Structures are given as structure tokens and as C-alpha cells.
Amino acid sequence: MSLSAQVGPKWSPLRRYLELLHILVERNLKGRYRGSFLGVYWSLLNPLIMTGLYAAIFGTAFARYYNNSTLNYILAAFTGLIVINFFSAATNQALGSVVGNGPLLNKIKIPVSIFPISMIVANTFQFVMGPLPLLAIVTLIINRNPVSVVALVFPLIALSLVCTGVGLLVSALFVFFRDLPYFYELICFVLWISSPVFYPAEIVPAKVKSFLLLNPLIPIIESIRQISLSGTLPDLMLIGHSFLNGIILLMLGWTCFRAWQNQFMDLL
What we know:
Layout: H1 3-6, H2 13-33, H3 42-62, H4 70-95, H5 97-100, H6 102-105, H7 114-129, H8 131-143, H9 146-151, H10 153-176, H11 180-193, H12 206-212, H13 217-229, H14 236-260
């Protein structure tokens, strides 16, 4: 059944949008993992392997920053990696979503924003099925408090807001600037290297730390680590900082996308 046949005129605008979003997310996930042995669990295998490599190379050197515990370093590296991997995968897939669906947009009148948002939702589902259960188990074992497990939802919502805002922005920019993927690859690398993923934040020089405040992923990573690994109650300031970044980027991405989308069809 064609996409236009599945989403008919009988739907209200919101219900039609949600139905179309469900169709696109389902198609994305089925197409991505058709014939795959592990399916969505590839999203868990990658950070696990990278965590093992970081632990083997840096674990001994950096353990003293984590209460002289290599295990604490491993857990800290894992939490940082799942955030970076989610952000990179979701926003890179969103980047090409509008241009990639140009032929469909020329045939069917549908909301253009559905394409980058469907990529974010698909990756969110993948995250919920893969890394999140393991992160929740680790949090429960360390904190022994179900409240901390529930609190994990808040920085993860903030992460989704950041990814949605950035995804909308880069997908719109790609319509006008087809060299953007090469530049965005560099941006993702800068965000990764400037985030305390495989190294402790304490080793960063004070003069450099002020520039790291521009990285919206840092408060999210620190918030997840604080909730999962500290054994204390969630830090509301970190959660609030994460949400503030997410809301700002979402508003920026949505505003730019809406302002530019009338020009899309001439370039697709």
C-alpha cells in the first residue's frame, strides 16, 4: 500500500501527522535492520566495544579520577558514549532526510518536518530498546533506588530535544548547502572530543573549560552520570541545564525550518 493510501484525508491534521510518523519510523527501522542478526541491539554493541577499548587504553591512567576504580571509569565512559552515539546517529540521519525524500515530496503533499523528526524518533526507539535497559540496571544496582531509574528519563528527554532541534536545523541547511555533511562530520567530531567521554573533566585546563560550555551534550552526559553512578539524589540543576539547552536548540531548529521550508521545493 502506498504512503498516500495509508494516510488519507479522513484524518485530522494531528492524527494524520502521528499516523504518518508511525509509518515512516516503522519503515526506517525495518529497512535499517532487514536481514540483520542483532537488529536494534547493534546500538548497544558499538558503545560496549568502544568502552572496552577505552578501558584497555585509558582505564589505568584515569581510574584515580573515579575513586581509583576502573569499573567506575568503564561505567562513566559507557554513559558518555551512548549519548554521543545517539546524537551523532540521529542528527546525521536527519540531515539527509528532507533531500533524500525530495521525489516523495514532489508527489504527495505532506508535512516536510515529518522526515527529520521520524529519524529522531526511530533512533529514540532504538535507544530505548538497546542501551537504556542496561543503563537502568546499572543505575538500580548502584543506587538501589527506583527514583534514580525514573530520573534517567529527564536527561534523555533533554537529549531528544537537542537532537530534534539540531536535526531540523541541519536538514533544512542541507537543502541549500550540499557540502554540509562534510562540515557536519567535523562538528560531530568536535562535540565528541570536547565532551568528557573517555577522559575526566578534571584534566581539562581552566581556560578551555569556558569554551566547553557551548557543548550542549556535556550537561546531559554529566546529568546521566550523576544519576547513575553517584549514588545520590538527582541533581536538579544539571537536569535543568540539560532541558534549557534542549528547549533553546529545539526552538532555533524549528524556527529556521519553518522560515526556510517554503523554498525547499524549488531545490529538491
